Amino acid sequence: MSKNEYHHLNKLLYENKNSNHTHTFELPNSDKSNTILETKLQDDIFLMKNNIIINQDTKIQTNSDIGGLLLTFNFKSNHKYKSLITDYNIESKDNFTTIGLINREEGIEDFKKDSSIQSINIIVKKEFLKQNIPLNKTTEKIFKSLENKNCNLLLKNKKMNHKTAIIANDIFLSNFTGSLEKIFIHSKTLEILYTEFNDLFSNKFVQTNRKIKFDDYDINALYLAKDILLNNIQNPPSIIELSKMVKLNEFKLKIGFKKLFDTTPYKYLHEYRMQQAKHLLQIGDMNVTEVSNKIGYKYIHSFSKVFAQRFGILPKDLMKNRKYYYY
């Protein structure tokens, strides 16, 4: 990918609403308040991390030649985008995943004063898609759409799911330096692509077990079960209790949870607890005992043991290197 393909992020044309003329400027990478880190992971995957503050009412004209998918994971972002060549319009929000199929695009991004952007962009070229996503009716439409010069198709714009948020946060915290760090970033990027592609391009709820069928009610019940677990992190219900609460029998609850979330209910809850604990230890002002109680552990030594098993570091040691970031 040439530098011109980063035009929409590196070289910006903006209009100050309080003046009658336009200016061009290049974002100062040396300015800590406005940084864009970009890296080529392989010939057909590119990654950018954006941390930008807009100090005045601003319109930014964007130009991009993607030729594939643009995946945006917004931790903090609140602005509007309007295409100049298609009917594609979108309002960006905090903690949202937006995925668009884009060939060539021009548009205007509208920011209000004191807007900020903290996000990750992943560009996946058409060649990667052809080699790695399953061929079905959905993906056939994808490739056919990309033949259109002005293709711009919104595939997803919704709240970032828990698993994606964990991976995206790991990428956002990285500084992209050093050979091992690059391996880490590459692996995390492929992991997030797998997660999102599995959601977009495969029918996850195909009835692989012909004896068990899941209708819309069952799927909604499974999502409700997940929410109940996460909303009762300090005192979660038992499987029997959870089954009664969502009106789904225990067997169907366990099998359905495994199919829908790729894990068991309590492994899902355990991972959520660990990620919440890590988050609080890194950016909060709680001590280890307070964090342990917050996520539902009565005994600090039990919490410290399982935390060290999960992350390879004791909670008290992680707390010494606190960083501020958005999640």
Outline of this structure?
With 327 residues, the chain is of the alpha+beta class. Helix content is 41%, strand content 28%.
Helix share bin: 40-55%
**Counted beta strands:** 10
Mean pLDDT: 80
Question: Which structural category do the helix and sheet elements fall into?
Answer: alpha+beta
* Helix segment tally: 12
Share of β-strand residues? 25-35%
Spatial extent as radius of gyration: 22 Å
Structure report:
- The chain has 327 residues and is α+β, with helices and mostly antiparallel strands.
- It is built from 12 helices and 10 strands.
- Strands 1, 2, 3, 4, 5, 6, 7, 8, 9 and 10 form a 10-stranded antiparallel β-sheet that branches.
- Helix 4 (162-173) runs antiparallel to helix 5 and helix 6 packs across helix 7 (239-246).
- The chain is 41% helix and 28% strand.
List keywords for this structure.
327 residues; alpha+beta; ten-stranded antiparallel β-sheet
Topology diagram in text:
Elements: H1 7-10, E1 11-16, E2 22-26, E3 35-42, E4 45-54, E5 58-76, E6 80-83, E7 89-91, E8 96-111, E9 115-125, H2 126-132, H3 137-146, E10 152-159, H4 162-173, H5 179-201, H6 216-231, H7 239-246, H8 250-261, H9 265-283, H10 288-294, H11 300-311, H12 315-319
Antiparallel strand pairs: 1-2, 1-5, 3-4, 4-9, 5-8, 5-9, 6-7, 6-8, 8-10
